[in-house]
Amino acid sequence: MLVEAAAPAGDETVSLDAVERLVGVLGDCWPVVLHRPRRFGAQFAVDAVSCDEALTSGMTMWRTATELVGLPQWPVVRAEVATVDEMDRELDSWRHTSGRGDGRCLAHAGARGAQ
């Protein structure tokens, strides 16, 4: 699941430290956070039987996590879910077109998930 929020009009910003606190709250879901002063987000794993369920569950996780760490409740401007199979297809496509990538990150994530 990938979720991004952006500041509405105005001068409000968010610090990197605040966004990094999401990692602690979403820690069991292998989070990666994204930060710009007027935009922040997170990519994290959601266990669900369908993309619809993942989106609903993931958005609940997002709202809870951002509230717990005191981040502003800015409008969500992006919410995306993908199955593991779809992510694998995207990675394979990237490898094919770029001629790069040896799968170490994917293998590491898979090994971590098997623990």
Strand-helix topology:
Blueprint: E1 2-6, H1 16-25, E2 32-36, E3 39-43, H2 51-68, E4 76-80, H3 84-98, H4 104-113
Antiparallel strand pairs: 1-3, 1-4, 2-3
Essential attributes:
disordered C terminus; 115 residues; globular; alpha+beta; 4-stranded antiparallel β-sheet
Structure commentary:
Helices cover 46% and strands 17% of the residues. It folds into two domains: 2-81, no CATH class; 83-115, no CATH class. The relative contact order is 0.20. It is built from four helices and four strands, in the order E-H-E-E-H-E-H-H. The chain is an alpha+beta fold and 115 residues long. It has a four-stranded antiparallel beta sheet, covered by helices on one side. Strand 2 and strand 3 form a beta hairpin.
Output the structural class. alpha+beta
User: Percentage of helical residues?
Assistant: 40-55%
Q: Let me know the average pLDDT.
A: 85
Q: Uncertain segments of ≥5 residues (pLDDT<50)? A: 104-115
- Order of SSEs: EHEEHEHH
Please state the overall shape, judged from the principal axes of the Cα atoms. globular
Strand order of the largest sheet: 2-3-1-4
Ends apart, CA distance between termini = 21 Å
Number of helices: 4
Counted beta strands: 4
Percent of sequence in beta strands: 15-25%
Note the main sheet. 4 strands, antiparallel
How many structural domains does the protein architecture include?
A: 2
Q: Could you tell me the radius of gyration in angstroms?
A: 15 Å
